[in-house]
Amino acid sequence: MARVVLTQPWPRVRGIEQRLRELGHEPLALPMSRIVELVDEPGVAAVAARLAGFDWVIMVSPAAVAAAARLTGGRWPEGTGVAVVGPGSLQAIAESGLAVDPDRVLRPGGPHFDADALIGTPPLRTPRGLRVLVLRGHDGSERWIARLRAAGAAVETCEIYRREPLEPDAAALAALRALLGDQPAPVFVFTQRDAVERVEALLGRAGLAARAHDAPALAIHARIAAALQARGWRGVRAIEPGDRALAAALELFPDSPSSHSV
Known about the structure:
α3 (62-72) runs parallel beside α4. It is elongated and about 55 Å long. The protein is 38% helix and 21% strand. Among the domains are: 36-163, Rossmann fold; 167-182 and 200-216, no CATH class. By secondary structure, it is of the alpha/beta class. It has eleven helices and eleven strands. The chain has helices at 12-22, 42-48, 62-72, 87-96, 115-119, 143-150, 170-180, 193-206, 209-213, 222-230, 243-250, and strands at 3-6, 26-29, 33-37, 56-59, 81-84, 105-106, 131-137, 154-165, 187-190, 216-219, 235-238.
């Protein structure tokens, strides 16, 4: 089984680390940011009270799903659909216990999973007259939201969480150094473009960039893969979002020495 470096935000990375460990992999959680939910903010609570007034609520990430589940206590208005950008958020709905009718969950069919792909999916492709709420982080993109509005949708946005930079502790950095000093090289997993920059800064300060750039890297979007390649990573591969796609991709990498121990 593979050695894996996970850069997903805390606390979501904790669950991914546990599931990969149960599959026999050797994961190292190296979160580059922390999710801070804003469900207690008065404006967020006010939006929650109006959920039944929207046709669709777009949750832009697993973090948005988790925060929405906490905000609503798992309850969901019957007539309000949920739209997500990919398999990772779909999995987060199941894990959160959010009581959403499966027939009212919309996501892109692939192979691209992002907001642009989502708004190209019916009925959001022709959204005139639809009432849409976007639950997102504080630094979310406006471009695709502007496209929905221009096409006739009535769109509101609500910042339901924010990301704060997180610096790995000395133990995590020592574990990373040990992984990069051994063979086979660990597989780095990136789910956010800003994590690329933060990991690069960390590797540069630790003098580990050259070794890391020779390691394989998995990215859940072409833009993340391009950012890695621009930084000098040579073995970059794009995969679909979600734990299932990640587990399948890791099966293709060489076993670590400890996986052969008895």
